[in-house]
Amino acid sequence: xxxxxxxxxxxxxxxxxxxxQHVEWTKNIGYLLHPSIRHTVEPNDRIADxxxxxxxxxxxxxxxxxxxxxxTGFDIASTQFRAADALPAGVELLxxxxxxxxxxxxxxxxxxxxxxxxxxxxxxxxxxxxARNCVQLLKPGGHIQWDEANxxxxxxxxxxxxxxxxxxxxxxxxxxxxxxxxRFEHGWxxxxxxxxxxxxxxxxxxxxxxDRLLEHRHTATxxxxxxxxxxLRDMETKxxxxxxxxxxxxxxxxxxxxxxxxxxxxRYDIHVFTARKPL
Length: 279
Prior knowledge:
It is built from nine helices and nine strands. The chain has 279 residues and is an alpha/beta fold. The longest helix has 23 residues, at 217-239.
């Protein structure tokens, strides 16, 4: 059985946070599929989402592409999957560990392979393996899109208003576990090089700031704060470490909430890596 290394929980609260995060990211980036890929999609194309969670990205994409396209989501655990009878025709969610080769029947099957935010699930040495396995899914001429964020550098809280307070939001960033910061800081940043070394062509990186849309600064910050809080609470369960005692964490989060209400926010860079498999 594959080991689930996702750093956060997979309960209903985390699923709701991921759904909200999807909305914020899509609006801020400005697309589901990069325009250079979107215009190549044809009827009957097959599209895969690796690390699909509940399948939200696939489901939204299916509303914008020809109804004859087929969609497959892969995740290491089915915990967050929607029920099969709740999925529209042409959409399926399957259990698979991207750190291992996919079943042969999926090799060379897909016109587009998408990944988003595996930073919470991969160690630094696993990125190239996952990239290689995902490239194996592509048809010749198929495209890959991989969206990640540099959360590790989102350390300094910013004032959105003249009288915004930032002290507790900065304290939260300071206690972000160093053991996880190493995971969040490395691996994804090498994807362009990895894509090139795997023989992919037209390798590009689209860089977007998380505060591109002013009206989404604070909802995006609340979502990031919720993720950090969840990480801190789960450290003891998952790794046997207590970074911040429960009473101190509650007090800190109350202060963070006041900072966010005052207009403080966190900014980070979003990186969208795209590439094409040669014909």
